[in-house]
Known about the structure:
Structural class: alpha+beta
CATH architecture: Clam
Largest sheet: 12 strands, mixed
Radius of gyration: 20 Å
Helix content: 10-25%
Distance between the termini: 73 Å
Number of helices: 3
CATH class: Mainly Beta
Order of helices and strands: HEEEEEEEEEHHEEE
Shape: globular
Strand order of the largest sheet: 7-8-9-10-11-1-2-3-4-5-6-12
CATH superfamily: Lipoprotein localisation LolA/LolB/LppX
Amino acid sequence: MYKFLIVISSLFLLHVGNSFSQSFEGSITFKRITFKDTTDYIYSVKGDMVRIDEKNKKGRIQGTMLVDTKNKKITTVSHDRKVFMSVETKPASLDMSKTEVDKTKETKEILGLKCEKWIAKNTEQNTIAEFWVHKGNYDFFLPLLGVLNRKDKISLLYQKIPDANGYFSLYGEERSVDGSLKEQLQVVKVEKKKMPDTSFKIPAGYTKFETK
């Protein structure tokens, strides 16, 4: 009986350990705020697939990107026109090699999650970014940024931070070196949940857009 209990306890601990090590699956809702506009986005994540929905002012999804981080493929979807197309991106030409990183000891809670403050600065590019990051097996995030090849400096700065795998920024802001605010990224909801496979597929009835 004693040996049986030991085996059961070991299996339970193994299951708990595996559940904690599983990559994030669910949705993350955030805002991108610039001096021109505010845009709402939703990341839906399952395995190597990430769906990015962009909402319009009325809260309606106006565009979607389906990103396969394993095979490094991007498909854009227009719901108004019911078409989709594959796109390719090129790396940014900005030289961010002289980025300085400070992982401070400051912490605070955002949405009930403990976050650490990281700062990335590149004087040559006249930019400095502040990130409040949470470690939660967000293994999709760095590969996603790599596939998207975003050109905005706040994304480029984040990718220069060492040992950032598994973290996600719940709040980020970019400023010029003189302190002028350029943009903010603010997460408003993090929801862990099972995502249906259909969320990462082209909707039925949509056709491929062919360029002439």
